[in-house]
Design brief:
Blueprint (H helix, E strand, L loop, with lengths): L5 E4 L5 H10 L15 H10 L1 H14 L4 E5 L7 E9 L4 H4 L17 E9 L8 H15 L4 E4 L17 H6 L3 E4 L6 E5 L3
Length: 198
């Protein structure tokens, strides 16, 4: 069943609600992977043994305005968050673009100053498959246009049999539906881009 969600930009007061969303979804990362300076093993250790460090960093980043994105609620007011979409300027998350799969790809050449990356999607388990990701993405595109972004880039997994936790970079079919095009086709890790005419 398709539902209606209220989406808005992440604000400084949304930190505790966003942290609760990550806890409800059982996601100890608290959207800190792209900002974490250690390697993957150190990251896994931190998520397993010290998830509160990720939570505290999330709260600090939200409160200071260092983290940007879109939050979704079932309706206005004090309702809990049911979804999150991280939006990051490409140059602010070099860890994403420095990964072996994406490093030095021709599709990333040229002026990158107006490019925004979809850093992650998170939907609370009980609201999955009800249109939260669709609402987040639609609002994210609007916000990117308002910010005069030149393009949005996404890094989904492409596989018909992925579980919800593997869709954290966005559902491939949904991105296609919104007009994203594959600009580097290395299955199952394509790079997708939506050119914006601002």
């Amino acid at each position: 069943m398709q539902r209606t969600y209220l989406c808005d930009r992440l604000g400084p007061a949304d930190g505790p609600a966003l942290a609760r969303l990550f806890a409800t979804a059982g996601a100890p990362c608290h959207c800190r992977w792209w900002d974490f300076e250690g390697d993957k093993n150190e990251w896994l250790d931190r998520c397993y043994n010290r998830p509160e460090a990720n939570r505290e960093e999330l709260l600090t980043a939200v409160g200071s305005g260092a983290l940007s994105g879109i939050v979704a609620r079932l309706d206005a007011g004090e309702r809990p968050l049911v979804g999150w979409l991280r939006l990051s300027h490409a140059e602010s998350i070099p860890k994403l673009y420095d990964q072996r799969l994406y490093r030095k790809l021709p599709c990333f050449e040229g002026d990158r100053s107006g490019v925004i990356a979809l850093g992650c999607f998170l939907v609370t388990p009980e609201e999955r498959r009800h249109g939260v990701a669709r609402a987040l993405l639609g609002h994210g595109i609007e916000v990117a246009r308002q910010q005069a972004a030149t393009a949005l880039e996404a890094f989904p997994r492409r596989d018909d049999h992925l579980g919800p936790e593997a869709l954290w970079t966005g559902p491939f079919a949904l991105l296609r539906e919104f007009g994203f095009e594959v600009v580097n086709d290395f299955a199952p890790y394509p790079v997708m881009r939506l050119q914006l005419n601002c």
